[in-house]
Amino acid sequence: QVQLVESGGGLVQAGGSLRLSCVLSGRTCRYYAMGWFRQGPGKEREFVAGISWRGGDTYYADAVKGRFTISRDNAKNTVALQMDSLKPEDTAVYYCAATLWRTAIGNLKIPDKYNYWGQGTQVTVSS
After folding, report:
1. Does residue 72 have a pLDDT over 90?
2. Who wins on pLDDT, 74 or 95?
3. Cβ-based neighbours of 92, under 8 Å, separated by 6 or more
4. What is the mean pLDDT of residues 85-89?
5. If you average pLDDT over residues 26-45, what whole number do you get?
6. Is 91 helix (H, G, I), strand (E, B) or coil?
7. Is the pLDDT confidence value at 23 over 90?
8. What is the C-alpha separation between 33 and 50, in angstroms, rounded?
9. Residue 45 CA to chain centroid, in angstroms?
10. How far is Cα 18 from Cα 92, in angstroms, rounded to an integer?
11. Are strands 121-126 and 10-13 parallel, antiparallel or unpaired?
12. Three-state SS string across 39-90, please?
């Protein structure tokens, strides 16, 4: 059984940084494309960033482009999301997800295509 566990969330001031990590257990993550999504208070879940199963391609939502960086280490079965220049509107529960779907990198923004999801980690950015 595949499990995803996120960590690294917390409270940070606007302009600060956080690094989220996601560990995949139960199977090697090298076959999965990975994504990060978030759900803010009163909002629907939205795509943040995605990375291909080999790690060579990445894709970002416009709202985070240039501030967030997604990366992966298949040897450690982990995916990270480095978040810099954080804004109050980045406040949300952040979820890691994995998919076996082989598709164009831009399609990683589609949540229904993911096979597995983590429980989420809270990120709060104060103004």
Report:
1. yes
2. 95
3. 38, 39, 40, 41, 43, 122, 123
4. 97
5. 90
6. coil
7. yes
8. 7
9. 12
10. 13
11. parallel
12. ECCCCCCEEEEEECCCCCCEEECCCCCCCEEEEEECCCCEEEEEECCCCHHH
CA–CA separation, 106 and 102 (whole Å): 11
Please tell me the predicted confidence (pLDDT) of residue 81. Answer: 98
- Least confident range from 18-22, 29-33, 94-98: namely 29-33
Phi-psi region of 63 (alpha: psi -120 to 50; beta: other; left: phi over 0): alpha
Task: Tell the residue number behind the tokens 């482009």, with chain if given.
Answer: 65
Note whether 37 and 47 are within 8 A (CB): yes
- Look-up of token digits 């597995």: 116
Cα–Cα distance for residue pair 100/92, rounded to 1 Å: 26
Strand partners, 35: 50, 97
Report the alpha-carbon distance of residue 33 to residue 51 in Å, rounded. 6
User: Quick check: 32 and 11 in contact, CB under 8 A?
Assistant: no
pLDDT of residue 87: 98
Give the tens place of pLDDT for each residue, 102-114. Answer: 888 899 999 999 9
Q: For the chain, what's the residue count?
A: 127
Neighbour tally for 58: CB within 10 Å = 16
**Which residue is it, tokens 């566990």?**
5
